[in-house]
């Protein structure tokens, strides 16, 4: 597999676009003249320049001082320092503290003054003379600030003083030397090692981790001391320090070095001889440091030397007038990058370095400083890849294969196949894994080909499997307990690394391939962990089932609630772990028991076989039936269950080995769920498995009472037959009920031993349906009268009392008939007397003027008034009939119509019958005028 992946990766990398290493541009140096034409007296008059915190301060010999904020250079602050003895006294030098708040002034009369930068802008005289410092033989040439109010200075006489600017007489001598103090540095800036340097005469002293200047110079011996050839006494600034590097000029050249590293600082310093520089008649008058270059002022030219290889990378000449002399280099290290300045007696120039880091990475690589090269800002991808390749080659040569692999892995300048083959030849699987992992991370960050990323991830997984297999072999063959424990810890660590790799690269892994790789290596636990990580619970479930670990399989099933898996693995789980399987199903919502019928029936078949081979005294629960009953009893799902669920439950109950003794339970179940199952199917089952009580009940439920009684009699189940014949459903069919009881009686008589008792029992159980006369034809020829005498007598007595009751009822009926006839005759002779002047109860007019009706209640109405009242009533049936007759009367009133109308009108009174009662919700007065007349 590894060879195939190598070949494919080699093909991919051949066709992928890579970063190409190109040549680098050289550092550009620009010298920009600072425009100071507005200062008339500047010509050959500049004596000092300081640039700190982006503030420029320069002074003229005449005492004029200028302060410029380089962020807004158009705003120039001018200040005139009043010299005491003008024109003899002149201003020689100005020093400004790093925060650009305090100035130290020096005159040619060895007078020293301190003033604040704020005073320059405000114009007030806040000048403080340093009287104790202003004495003979105190010619200060080097100053190191210790804050805005304190500084340490060195003189040409070789003395070092600690000065407090807030006190006129504060100047404490800290050191004395026979030679001038050319430089004094106490460095404790962040990122730089705490150190101190003292350059005096021909000796350079170095302190590591110094204390305060006074204590260090007076009490502490130097950590290192190095002597060089004696130089001339000059006032030029010869010693500089930047970050962790220093430089010191001597007559023969320039010494520079770094305080980094574990070796000697001064002994490991580099000496750049003047003969290595381009020839010149001028000596070095100024020195400055950048991160990788050394700047030298020599006459009117600027030399820039690469500190890594001592090569001159730039040589710039500044045009100057004949009388103009260049004095010094000045650097503002507060800026990033630092700003460099050069000044002469008449002009100020800014030295601009562009692309200082160009090519530095290559030099650092050649020097083996790969980490420093990689930290360089602005590196092109190809340059970074080249550095990493070089670092990898170096580490590989040092047999640090793992670290080399990590470097190769993040570099695109070397092919995967090339590095992989190198590491495989060394048989270092750990290093190969480190390389592939790093290469995969790099490919993901750079969004390389998906195919390449997939191949690398597959290879990493393959290597993990190989390493795990190797550790397993060592564990199995190891006999030493201590070594065995270490190998086990190693395996545990590899497992954690594998899982961390999976989690980090989950979205890019080809799951099928990873499964295949781990399966081929027989890494079951790793496969399982991977499946869990990607939530592939179907695979986990299938794994546990293949492993026959039913408990874990059911745990996964309960966790996933996956119905597809429930149905898929139902049979195997139910057969091997029925109790837990059923309980798990009960916990999963939405399971359709209809989908499980096949598995449940398979389990039931197996259950029946197990029972037949098992000890009969051992009770084996039927978990399939338990689950079906649970489904049926659940109120939420019972209504939606298919008939097959009930059929299956009844089948298991009927076909079960213990069904014969539990038929009453079966009948109760059928009765509780009538209509939910196939009755024909249940009937056939009952007959097949000889569950006759159940069969009798089903016959009865199907209203096949005759068949039910016949089967009961046949199976000698007379009590069940009696229950069928006594069922309330036969209350409306006495003929069939009598027939059924006759069938039962015949069977009982045929089986009887005590005729009298049998007759008494039949008559009692039939509840009067059968009498002795019905039983007589059923007795045999040899039955004696003595056996039926008592019942015959009871029957005759009952018959006699019945006949007497019937006779009494007939007499009562005749009496009622007579009374009815008399009432009819009375009604025929009934009449109603009307008083003279009787009026219609509707219109109050004389009744006899028109045809009228008089009712038994005493109300009388004209015929037309009665019709009108009925038509206005709510008796819709009567209204409809009268309206029908009226419509037909338009064609001509027939005799039949007149008779029908007369019958309808005489049916009931329109005032005291339901005709008027139905209008109770209507208002008493419907006439609007009449109603308004009664209003108050």
Automatic annotation (TrEMBL):
<dbReference type="GO" id="GO:0008270">
    <property type="term" value="F:zinc ion binding"/>
</dbReference>
<dbReference type="Pfam" id="PF26148">
    <property type="entry name" value="VPS18_RING_C"/>
</dbReference>
<dbReference type="GO" id="GO:0030674">
    <property type="term" value="F:protein-macromolecule adaptor activity"/>
</dbReference>
<keyword id="KW-0863">Zinc-finger</keyword>
<dbReference type="GO" id="GO:0030897">
    <property type="term" value="C:HOPS complex"/>
</dbReference>
<dbReference type="InterPro" id="IPR058919">
    <property type="entry name" value="Pep3/Vps18_RING_C"/>
</dbReference>
<keyword id="KW-0862">Zinc</keyword>
<comment type="similarity">
    <text>Belongs to the VPS18 family.</text>
</comment>
<dbReference type="InterPro" id="IPR000547">
    <property type="entry name" value="Clathrin_H-chain/VPS_repeat"/>
</dbReference>
<dbReference type="GO" id="GO:0006886">
    <property type="term" value="P:intracellular protein transport"/>
</dbReference>
<dbReference type="GO" id="GO:0048284">
    <property type="term" value="P:organelle fusion"/>
</dbReference>
<dbReference type="GO" id="GO:0006904">
    <property type="term" value="P:vesicle docking involved in exocytosis"/>
</dbReference>
<dbReference type="InterPro" id="IPR007810">
    <property type="entry name" value="Pep3/Vps18_beta-prop"/>
</dbReference>
<dbReference type="GO" id="GO:0005768">
    <property type="term" value="C:endosome"/>
</dbReference>
<keyword id="KW-0472">Membrane</keyword>
<dbReference type="Pfam" id="PF05131">
    <property type="entry name" value="Pep3_Vps18"/>
</dbReference>
<feature type="domain" description="Pep3/Vps18 RING C-terminal">
    <location>
        <begin position="835"/>
        <end position="918"/>
    </location>
</feature>
<dbReference type="InterPro" id="IPR036322">
    <property type="entry name" value="WD40_repeat_dom_sf"/>
</dbReference>
<feature type="repeat" description="CHCR">
    <location>
        <begin position="588"/>
        <end position="757"/>
    </location>
</feature>
<dbReference type="GO" id="GO:0007032">
    <property type="term" value="P:endosome organization"/>
</dbReference>
<keyword id="KW-0479">Metal-binding</keyword>
<dbReference type="GO" id="GO:0007033">
    <property type="term" value="P:vacuole organization"/>
</dbReference>
<protein>
    <submittedName>
        <fullName>KLTH0G11374p</fullName>
    </submittedName>
</protein>
<dbReference type="GO" id="GO:0098588">
    <property type="term" value="C:bounding membrane of organelle"/>
</dbReference>
<feature type="domain" description="Pep3/Vps18 beta-propeller">
    <location>
        <begin position="27"/>
        <end position="352"/>
    </location>
</feature>
């Amino acid at each position: 597999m590894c060879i195939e992946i190598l070949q494919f990766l080699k093909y991919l990398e051949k066709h992928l676009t890579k970063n190409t290493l190109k040549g680098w541009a050289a550092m550009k140096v620009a010298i920009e003249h600072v425009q100071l034409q507005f200062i008339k007296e500047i010509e050959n008059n500049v004596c000092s320049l300081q640039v700190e915190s982006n503030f420029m301060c320069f002074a003229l010999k005449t005492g004029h001082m200028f302060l410029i904020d380089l962020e807004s250079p158009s705003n120039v602050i001018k200040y005139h320092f009043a010299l005491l003895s003008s024109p003899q006294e002149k201003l020689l030098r100005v020093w400004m503290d790093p925060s650009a708040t305090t100035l130290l002034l020096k005159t040619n009369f060895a007078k020293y003054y301190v003033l604040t930068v704020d005073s320059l802008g405000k114009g007030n005289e806040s000048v403080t003379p340093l009287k104790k410092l202003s004495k003979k033989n105190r010619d200060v040439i080097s100053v190191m600030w210790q804050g805005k109010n304190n500084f340490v200075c060195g003189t040409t006489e070789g003395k070092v003083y600690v000065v407090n600017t807030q006190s006129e007489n504060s100047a404490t001598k800290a050191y004395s030397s026979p030679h001038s103090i050319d430089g004094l540095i106490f460095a404790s800036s962040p990122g730089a090692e705490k150190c101190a340097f003292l350059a005096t005469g021909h000796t350079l002293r170095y302190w590591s981790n110094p204390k305060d200047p006074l204590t260090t110079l007076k009490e502490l011996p130097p950590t290192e001391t190095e002597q060089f050839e004696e130089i001339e006494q000059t006032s030029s600034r010869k010693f500089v320090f930047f970050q962790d590097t220093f430089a010191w000029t001597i007559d023969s050249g320039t010494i520079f070095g770094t305080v980094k590293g574990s070796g000697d600082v001064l002994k490991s310093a580099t000496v750049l001889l003047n003969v290595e520089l381009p020839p010149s008649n001028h000596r070095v008058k100024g020195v400055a440091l950048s991160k990788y270059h050394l700047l030298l002022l020599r006459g009117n030219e600027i030399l820039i030397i690469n500190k890594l290889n001592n090569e001159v990378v730039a040589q710039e000449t500044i045009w100057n007038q004949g009388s103009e002399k260049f004095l010094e280099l000045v650097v503002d290290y507060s800026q990033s990058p630092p700003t460099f300045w050069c000044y002469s007696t008449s002009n100020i120039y800014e030295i601009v370095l562009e692309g200082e880091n160009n090519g530095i990475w290559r030099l650092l690589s050649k020097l083996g400083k790969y980490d420093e090269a990689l930290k360089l800002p602005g590196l092109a991808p190809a340059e970074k890849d080249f550095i990493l390749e070089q670092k990898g080659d170096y580490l590989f040569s040092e047999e640090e294969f793992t670290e080399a692999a990590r470097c190769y892995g993040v570099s695109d300048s070397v092919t995967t196949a090339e590095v992989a083959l190198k590491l495989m030849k060394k048989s270092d699987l750990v290093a190969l894994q480190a390389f592939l992992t790093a290469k995969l991370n790099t490919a993901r960050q750079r969004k390389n080909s998906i195919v390449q990323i997939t191949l690398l991830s597959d290879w990493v997984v393959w290597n993990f499997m190989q390493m795990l297999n190797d550790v397993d072999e060592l564990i199995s063959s190891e006999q030493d307990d201590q070594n065995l424990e270490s190998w086990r810890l190693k395996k545990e660590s590899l497992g954690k690394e594998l899982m961390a790799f999976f989690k980090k690269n989950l979205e890019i892994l080809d799951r099928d391939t990873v499964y295949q790789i781990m399966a081929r290596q027989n890494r079951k636990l790793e496969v399982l962990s991977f499946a869990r990580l990607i939530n592939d619970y179907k695979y986990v479930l299938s794994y546990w089932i293949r492993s026959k670990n039913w408990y874990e399989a059911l745990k996964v099933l309960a966790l996933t609630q996956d119905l597809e898996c429930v149905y898929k693995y139902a049979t195997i789980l139910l057969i091997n772990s029925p109790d837990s399987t059923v309980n798990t199903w009960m916990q999963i919502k939405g399971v359709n028991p209809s989908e499980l019928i096949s598995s449940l029936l398979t389990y039931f078949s197996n259950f029946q076989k197990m029972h037949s081979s098992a000890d009969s005294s051992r009770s084996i629960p039927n978990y399939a039936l338990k689950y079906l009953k649970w489904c049926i009893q659940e109120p939420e799902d019972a209504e939606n269950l298919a008939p097959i669920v009930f059929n299956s439950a009844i089948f298991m109950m009927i076909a079960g080995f213990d069904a014969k003794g539990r038929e009453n339970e079966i009948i109760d179940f059928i009765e509780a769920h009538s209509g939910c199952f196939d009755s024909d199917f249940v009937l056939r089952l009952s007959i097949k498995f000889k569950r006759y009580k159940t069969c009798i009940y089903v016959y009865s439920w199907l209203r096949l009472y005759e068949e039910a009684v016949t089967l009961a009699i046949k199976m000698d189940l007379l009590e069940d037959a009696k229950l069928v014949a006594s069922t309330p459903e036969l209350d409306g069919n006495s003929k069939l009920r009598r027939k059924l009881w006759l069938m039962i009686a015949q069977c009982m008589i045929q089986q009887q031993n005590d005729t009298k008792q049998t007759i008494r029992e039949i008559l009692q159980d039939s509840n009067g349906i059968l009498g002795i006369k019905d039983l007589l034809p059923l007795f045999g020829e040899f039955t004696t009268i003595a056996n039926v005498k008592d019942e015959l007598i009871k029957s005759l007595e009952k018959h006699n009392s019945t006949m007497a009751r019937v006779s009494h009822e007939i007499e009562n009926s005749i009496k009622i008939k007579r009374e009815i006839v008399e009432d009819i005759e009375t009604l025929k002779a009934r009449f109603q007397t009307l008083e003279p002047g009787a009026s219609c109860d509707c219109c109050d007019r004389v009744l006899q003027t028109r045809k009228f009706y008089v009712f038994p209640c005493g109300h009388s109405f004209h015929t037309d008034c009665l019709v009108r009242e009925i038509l206005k009533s709510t008796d819709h049936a009567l209204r409809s009939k009268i309206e029908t007759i009226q419509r037909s009367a338009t064609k001509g009133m027939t005799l039949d119509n007149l008779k029908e109308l007369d019958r309808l009108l005489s049916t009931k009174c329109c005032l005291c019958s339901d005709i008027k009662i139905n209008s109770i919700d209507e208002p008493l007065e419907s006439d609007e005028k009449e109603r308004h007349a009664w209003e108050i």
